[in-house]
Amino acid sequence: MSEIVLDFAREERIGLAEAVFCAGKSAEQIGKLLDLAAEAGRSMLLTRLEPEAFAALSEAHRGAIDYCAVSRTGFFGEPAEVTSRGDVAIVLAGTSDVPVAREAERALRFAGIEAGFIADIGVAGLWRLTARLEEIRSHPIVIAVAGMDAALASVLGGLVSGALICVPTSVGYGATEGGRTALNAMLASCAPGLSVCNIDNGYGAACVAMRVLATARRVNG
After folding, report:
1. Which fold has domain 84-220?
2. Domain ranges of the chain
3. 97-122 exposure pattern, b = at least 16 Cβ within 10 A, e = fewer
4. pTM passes above 0.85
5. Are 157 and 133 in contact (CB under 8 A)?
6. Tens of pLDDT along 124-166?
């Protein structure tokens, strides 16, 4: 039996297309996945594709991938046509959170959603957040990406009315424990109604946003 079984029916079943988590996979395995997608005429999102793993792929495969080293994502084939602008904002506390935030941004774009990107507004300089608060509020869905104490999530939770999807990052010094402090802070937030994803899981946050948008479209006809 093959060690690779792609789930091309996933999009029809749950509204989210098959994506490939590349970490832990060999270049040979990734190449086989891409060949199967090509044979089926499917585009595919690749996540956690490290630069070294990308470089190890064949020239033909590299040429077929729109690769972003910052987010470690790749578009194999063409992304979906843009059908949504202004519905989602990705808000991040600091520049160190950019890779995770870009992963969310790229996952959304692959699905045809152009997200706003509002960077470096962590609460250490609260004026940076308040200066862009009305811009943030204009988006019905906000993805908040933050490490360290993750205070950004709670502050936004008390200021914006839209769906708030929080992503803790592994950014910070020793006591942050690789993102566990940020994760616990988001889960323990006093602000009601926060949705919290796994540490560094920008892709997961994008999928939550996609589900929210899809539900809203069904409800609104």
Report:
1. Rossmann fold (3.40.50)
2. 10-76, 84-220
3. bbbbbbbbbbbbbbbebebbbbbebb
4. yes
5. no
6. 888 999 999 999 999 999 999 999 999 999 999 999 999 999 9
